[in-house]
Amino acid sequence: MKSKVVVSLAIALVSLQVLLVFVSWLLSATMDTGVRSFLTSEGIRWFLGSFTTMLQSPLLVWILLLSMAYGVADRAFFSPQAQPDRRKLGIRLSVLFVLLYVLVILSLTVIPHAVLLSVSGHLFPSSPFSRALVPILAFGSIVGAVVYGFTTRVFRYVRDITNALVYGLSEAAPVLFLYVLFMQFYASLRFVFDW
Hints:
By secondary structure, the chain is mainly α. The protein has helices at residues 3-30, 41-49, 51-55, 58-77, 87-107, 128-131, 133-151, 158-171, 173-192.
């Protein structure tokens, strides 16, 4: 993500948060009910006491997992260190392992009374499969990229995979920063207007 865009979005979110503090105070002073102010003991206790709760969401986990999958895929498939004579073999083995992974997931979802089905026997909207869809996709991508990376000798050691996972997280750092600011503002809106 471009640095200027991140800075602009961060400034906008922080400005909205500061504006919300003053608007909440003004509205709570002029209205009888329905608006809570940040500038009260309740508001300060809520903000400081529930900061970690504000950030907890499946979206955060999805961002982390997808960024790690991105890092491994980027390092494996786009590395100049990949040995050209092993690329075809790498693609074939990678596709084979991903197909095996898909078969395992299918065996856990398609057959009657499968482990990842909901109590009513459906995949959507609320089954273990639907709740784990993003982690399943991220792990499958990581498996395919790791197989390709080992086959083409981009990854020679476990530390190479670890470095690729960390690289993905470092690339997602601006998104994580904006996530923190956005979730803080969103939770603050819900507190002020009692949603």
